[in-house]
Amino acid sequence: MVEPNYLIIMNKNQIELRLLPKYFKKIAFGIMLATLCFILLFVSEIITTDKEVTKTISKSLFLISLLILSMTKNKIEDELTLVIRLKAFAASFIFGVLIVIIDPFINLLFEGAFLLNKGVTELLISMLLVYFSMVFIMKRNR
Amino acid sequence: MKNTIRIERAIKDLTQEALANEIGVSRQTINSIEKNRYIPSTLLALKISEVFEKNVNEIFKLEEND
Asked: A104 and A117: one domain?
């Protein structure tokens, strides 16, 4: 069938997310495992570094691995999984904002007994964990 | 919005999995569309209509409150 020339080619980018290839999942789990090994080596005193440096390195590595995992393609990626991803990202963002708002009040009320987040890295890690839980719940209920 | 995908599938003797493979989505997506939990994009609706050799508005119908 010959298509009339007044037809406009529509941009499909709107319903696509630029995600990392599937093999990045292995890289992310590798980084996670390396972080765990690093922590274990530090705890067993095989490597002797400053506690704060170890904490910072392990937290950053864990955050990087979670970020890579969240941005990696799954086995099947279609428009429904895209919607789920976007909804989960929105939910984790709202969670992050709420934590920042609520945290000082909880600290005031309980005099620091419940420290919800101690820093930006922890907040980002918890946001990504919320993202993964939301994706899991929404995928199960789709 | 309502759709007749389940009926069309039965006529063509297609499983959800077979239809999903044909249009390049997951079986769960077809299930969600059939159960009205998800409204597909124009692109997906056109692909579905192509499989069933029918017009889009023969498969997807607007309801009064849409």
From this structure: yes
Whether residue A32 lies inside any domain: the answer is: yes
Claim to verify: residue A105 and residue A61 sit in the same structural domain = no
Q: Which of A130, A118, A140 is nearest to A94 (CA)?
A: A130
| Closest CA–CA distance from residue A82 to any residue of chain B (Å) | 11
Q: Which of A38, A56, A72 is the last residue of a domain?
A: A72
Q: Is residue A2 part of a domain?
A: no
Within 8 A of B25 by CB-CB distance, chain A residues are: 76, 78-80
pLDDT at B51 over 90: yes
Q: What is the pLDDT of residues A16-49, one digit of tens each?
A: 778 899 999 999 999 999 999 988 988 888 878 8
Whether A142 is in a domain gets the answer: yes
Q: Which residue of A has its CA nearest to B24?
A: A78
pTM of the model: 0.83
Q: Is A139 within a domain?
A: yes
Q: Are B4 and A53 in contact (CB under 8 A)?
A: no
ipTM of the complex: 0.83
Domain residues for A64?
20-72
